[in-house]
Amino acid sequence: MNINDIKKYISKIIDENKEDIFSVSKYLKDNPEIGFKEEKAYDFLTQKLSSLGFEIDNPTEKLPTSFLGKKSGLSHYKKIAILFEYDALPTIGHGCGHNMISAISYGASLALSKIDDLKGDIYVVGCPGEENGGGKVILTNEGIFDNFDVAMMIHPSTENKVYSTSLALDAIKFSYKGQTTHASASPEKGVNALDAVIHLFNGINYLRQYLKDGTRIHGIISNGGEAPNVIPDYAEAKFYFRAKTREYLDDVVKKGINIAEGASKMTGAELSWDYYELSNDDLRPSKKLSETFRKNYMELGIKNIEPDSEGGGSTDVGNVSHRIPAVHPYISIAPKHSISGHTVEFRDATLSKKGKEATLQAAKAIAFTTIDLLYEPNLLKNIKEDFEKNKEV
């Protein structure tokens, strides 16, 4: 079969198995689990992928709910990774649509598993803890992605977009140790740890005017004392620092730490700080791979594709994109700007009529792009060469 015939066959397979594909989204939606505790999702997804002929293993003991599956093709020269996300948010469940991400990736994997003598190997990679810990950071550091030529996934949104960056992120907790005392009877004997946190917030607010556009700093007081008549001897604040590049973010974080140290000196409270989540690098999507997705989106009738843009959030796919060519396109499941991510409304939209249609389209887009990578002469070679050239910029 030629490429067009294979794509027609893939489209037919996905349409014929749509209820099976939707069942993945529904099961995960009905059984939400937060990051690194996705035992049900792990069992469910690995069983379904095993039934398709994927050889499933755990890639690292550091992530018990991660998985790595392989479907060998006729040639082992090309290695394509399809990413799964399946962790949920506290309280609202799959408000970021990771249930749909897994359904999309499963649908693409199902279709590709039915193609005899593929000109390459297909890998399915289970990536836990995207929301609260960065499972892909661990997988990247363990060298798992170094074995693949490209990695890809599609995220639900209210927009169709094939190329969008994301911000590098550091999550830092600042803790202050002071001295407790009666706030009214003997305030002179105390060292107010909460005062240090307040100075920290004020200092960071002053810092904002000196930062480059696109830089974001946002935080909370995660511990501010227990009673107003007791000077708190312990207080802490958690911050997210974000910037367009890892290099500039490192600079911003140094300034934040300097402010935290200044707050310590001003109050006498002892400072300690640490990262409370794994850091995300900025997402650098492959331009050439994104353009392949654009072609397939258009072929599938996906309209209103947004121009290339810079994103405002963060994702651990960013870490992957610094090691191999990677993409993180978006597909619309609701009218533009009608709902927001990380909401109950977004969660429910994943299984709406439009959400289901988008699930099938996205599964086809990943499978079509995989076929292009495996069968089009020089496409993968050009993508990898472009990646190496841009990595040095």
UniProtKB/TrEMBL annotation:
It holds the Pfam family Peptidase_M20. Belongs to the peptidase M20A family. GO terms for biological process: folic acid catabolic process. It comes from the Bacteria. It comes from Geotoga petraea. This is Peptidase M20 domain-containing protein 2. Keywords: Hydrolase. Residues 174-259 form the Peptidase M20 dimerisation domain. One of its GO terms (molecular function) is dipeptidase activity. InterPro entries: Amidohydrolase (IPR017439), Bact_exopeptidase_dim_dom (IPR036264), Peptidase_M20 (IPR002933), Peptidase_M20/M20A_hydrolases (IPR052030), Peptidase_M20_dimer (IPR011650), Xaa-Arg_dipeptidase (IPR017144). Gene3D superfamilies: 3.30.70.360, Zn peptidases. SUPFAM superfamilies: Bacterial exopeptidase dimerisation domain, Zn-dependent exopeptidases. Coiled coil: none annotated. GO terms for cellular component: cytoplasm.
